[in-house]
């Protein structure tokens, strides 16, 4: 019969493997299950990481069984219009929701964000010194600094271009970006009811010829708007999401409305040039349609001199701005017979 000390020793030997197993770090399956649980609790499917969770999930030895796409955010910079951080964060959430809808329960790729105010150490580990910034930590990345940064060009078309980056780097299919409808079901029902109620009144106004479509002033205002919108680069600003102005880096209290360089155009400078174009167009229209009806020859001459002076000033401003922005100069060429 074994003595009590030998019995205790045998019991310790039996319990030792269980103790070592409990003290061992979490396995790959445990980390994936935990990430899936965190993703399920997030309304957008984006996991919020801190310094502690970055060490736990992203500093695990490579190769891992999962990859993580991280969006670096800073709430203090959301007021900077040139960074577009709130919009990019919203598009990142749409990207995550679209991927999760296409790949339900997937453990291959997770989407996460890190806030600068509470995770400055993680920003330092990744080497992030400017925003916007997105990084892909693939399963074979052994260091955080060695992860792949998303190029700025992949922010151009927001979630759609981000999806192209994910698909090209991971081989996973994101699918079409699922965007929420502009109007809710109740709003659509209300609009339909209002439209049906307005049909009798609209028919009455059409028969009497008293609608806005019968007013020449509306058509003139619409034509001016289309002309101004075209020459001011309004569509370019909508497509490129260009800001109206920027904050001067050397003086945060100063605003920059004109950007020198052909690679970018601000909304304010486009509207300024569009105003000059529209001004010249309106003066030419006034001369050809209104001034010719004036009987006083002196008034016609005075008006023509004013139109010529203002037109010369407007064209000179456009040429000056174009030369200042792009370096392109206007050259005059005389007919060879005049030389």
From TrEMBL:
One of its GO terms (cellular component) is oligosaccharyltransferase complex. The keyword Transmembrane helix applies. It is a multi-pass membrane protein. It is found in: Endoplasmic reticulum membrane. Residues 1-28 form the signal peptide. One of its GO terms (biological process) is protein N-linked glycosylation via asparagine. The chain crosses the membrane at residues 188-207, 219-239, 271-292, 299-315. Keywords: Endoplasmic reticulum, Membrane, Signal, Transmembrane, Transmembrane helix. The keyword Transmembrane helix applies. Its main location: endoplasmic reticulum. Belongs to the OST3/OST6 family. Component of the oligosaccharyltransferase (OST) complex. This is Dolichyl-diphosphooligosaccharide--protein glycosyltransferase subunit 3. It comes from Eleusine coracana subsp. coracana. The gene is gb11935.
